[in-house]
């Protein structure tokens, strides 16, 4: 029988499928004029049936494909995705292994074409062909491009389908090809045109004012309202009203026009970018809003650099060995579930252990080392329904190989820093109570730093036990603040 039925298994991948059966085909060379035109655009003439499908593709932009009807198994054409490890020998003679993401055209027994890319060898047109199924379809462009890239198979058809073809073109191209086949291959129409169109593409609308277009182009002498309407109509864009705020109906073959800026670009493109006068944009100049905290951080860094300190950057993560060495309790650290190394097992609540480790590294090369770090400390939540707390912190450490007391030096640096930052009513007072942070300080040489009676940090010398653990010869002055 010459009757065929068409089914689409995934309308997202095949948006439209039009086909017709033609009989009494006489396969022979195409007319010379058609061969010359095809050669002029780099397409090799094959025979009249194949040449007509290529000619219509070049003329209208809609790829077509012809199957030999007598080589198809059964009366059904199925648009489906390939089965795992399914193979198809394409027209170039290559056997290709497909996967489930690839769209194919199949008969009742096997795949007969890679949808929108290349036909199969099993159903190709040859000199004995007398009946064809002529296909004109629309395939989803992302899937088509992905399949072509996976297989390394770029064709004239796949190039066009990858540009998001208009499904409204399938019947137009099919009717054009039927006319040419009737004239140059003596074809007769055996069946009515089959047209499966699950979801019709609708025309988009955009409302835009002519003043908006003129303002964006920036050259009132180049464009006026009459010109704008005339240009839009030449582009097959329907203008509902010619008032100052018309609604534009975008044709389905222009899916790239989606927003007002696209319309402005079309007008400018037609008028000619080289015809526009170069003018500077006019905008109100407003002062930049400064972030007080960022400004404070910059001043702090600049001040510390001025008094001889070097900034360091450390990871937010620390290892158990480091905070144990510094005498800090494990309970204050948030443990990571998937640490990448023993040195990055916990989130640090304080910066001093990392800066002290930096001092240990640098003292091997320098007799005098002064370092600081400005970063966030992360402390665990106090309740189950709360999140961990992030606080900005500043840590200082001062090491001198020849000095056995560093309290006055580190205190002087802190005083100078707080003075430059205009911290009011600063006072230093000895602190006796125990605190997690204070375990790093020597008991007899430490002080709480307050501003208006509120503790903002601590300053002093490193705990002797910690100094021994690190093997420091000289005394290390340390300080840490809430920033």
From TrEMBL:
It comes from the Bacteria. Its EC number is 6.1.1.20. Keywords: Aminoacyl-tRNA synthetase, ATP-binding, Cytoplasm, Ligase, Magnesium, Metal-binding, Nucleotide-binding, Protein biosynthesis. Its cofactor is Mg(2+). GO terms for molecular function: ATP binding; magnesium ion binding; phenylalanine-tRNA ligase activity; RNA binding. The keyword Disulfide bond does not apply. It catalyses: tRNA(Phe) + L-phenylalanine + ATP = L-phenylalanyl-tRNA(Phe) + AMP + diphosphate + H(+). Transmembrane segments: none annotated. One of its GO terms (biological process) is phenylalanyl-tRNA aminoacylation. InterPro entries: aa-tRNA-synth_II/BPL/LPL, B3/B4_tRNA-bd, DNA-bd_dom_put_sf, Phe-tRNA-ligase_IIc_bsu, Phe-tRNA-ligase_IIc_bsu_bact, Phe-tRNA_synthase-like_B3/B4, PheRS_beta_core, tRNA_synthase_B5-dom. Residues 201-278 form the B5 domain. GO terms for cellular component: phenylalanine-tRNA ligase complex. It is an enzyme of class 6 (ligase). It holds the Pfam family B5. Tetramer of two alpha and two beta subunits. PANTHER family: PHENYLALANINE--TRNA LIGASE BETA SUBUNIT, PHENYLALANYL-TRNA SYNTHETASE BETA CHAIN AND LEUCINE-RICH REPEAT-CONTAINING PROTEIN 47. Belongs to the phenylalanyl-tRNA synthetase beta subunit family. Type 1 subfamily. This is phenylalanine--tRNA ligase. The lineage of its organism: Bacteria, Katanobacteria. The gene is pheT.
């Amino acid at each position: 029988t010459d009757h065929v039925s068409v089914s689409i298994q995934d309308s997202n991948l095949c948006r439209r499928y039009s086909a017709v059966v033609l009989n009494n085909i006489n396969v022979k060379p195409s007319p010379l004029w058609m061969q010359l035109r095809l050669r002029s655009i780099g397409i090799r003439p094959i025979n009249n049936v194949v040449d007509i499908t290529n000619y219509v593709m070049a003329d209208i932009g809609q790829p077509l494909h012809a199957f030999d009807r007598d080589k198809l198994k059964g009366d059904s054409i199925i648009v489906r995705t390939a089965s795992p490890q399914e193979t198809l020998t394409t027209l170039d003679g290559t056997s290709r292994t497909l996967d489930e993401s690839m769209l194919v055209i199949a008969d009742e027994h096997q795949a007969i074409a890679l949808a929108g890319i290349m036909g199969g060898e099993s159903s190709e047109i040859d000199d004995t062909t007398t009946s064809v199924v002529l296909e004109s379809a629309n395939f989803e462009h992302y899937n088509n491009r992905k399949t072509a890239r996976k297989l390394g198979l770029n064709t004239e058809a796949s190039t066009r389908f990858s540009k998001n073809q208009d499904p409204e073109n399938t019947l137009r191209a099919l009717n054009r090809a039927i006319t040419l086949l009737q004239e140059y291959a003596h074809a007769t129409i055996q069946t009515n045109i089959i047209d499966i169109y699950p979801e019709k593409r609708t025309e988009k609308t955009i409302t835009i004012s002519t003043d908006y277009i003129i303002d964006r182009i920036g050259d009132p002498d180049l464009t006026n309202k009459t010109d704008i309407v005339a240009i839009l109509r030449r582009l097959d864009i329907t203008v509902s009203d010619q008032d100052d705020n018309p609604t534009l109906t975008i044709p389905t073959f222009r899916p790239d026009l989606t927003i007002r800026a696209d319309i402005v670009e079309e007008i400018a493109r037609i008028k000619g970018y080289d015809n526009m006068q170069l003018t500077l944009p006019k905008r109100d100049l407003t002062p930049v809003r400064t972030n007080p905290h960022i400004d404070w951080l910059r001043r702090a860094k600049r001040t510390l650099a001025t008094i001889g300190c070097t900034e360091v950057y450390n990871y937010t993560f620390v290892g158990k060995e480091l905070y144990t060495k510094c005498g800090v309790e494990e309970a204050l650290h948030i443990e990571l579930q998937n640490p990448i190394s023993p040195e990055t097992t916990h989130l640090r609540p304080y910066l001093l252990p990392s800066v002290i480790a930096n001092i240990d590294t640098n003292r091997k090369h320098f007799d005098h080392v002064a370092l600081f770090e400005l970063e966030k400390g992360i402390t665990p939540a106090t309740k189950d329904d709360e999140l961990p707390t992030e606080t900005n912190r500043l840590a200082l450490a001062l090491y001198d190989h020849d000095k056995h007391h560093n309290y006055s030096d580190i205190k002087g640096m802190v005083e100078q820093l707080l003075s430059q930052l205009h911290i009011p009513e600063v006072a230093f007072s000895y602190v006796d109570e125990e605190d997690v942070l204070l375990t790093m300080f020597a008991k007899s040489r430490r002080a709480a730093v307050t501003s208006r009676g509120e503790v903002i940090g601590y300053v002093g010398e490193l705990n002797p036990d910690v100094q021994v653990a690190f093997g420091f010869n000289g005394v290390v002055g340390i300080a840490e603040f809430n920033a």
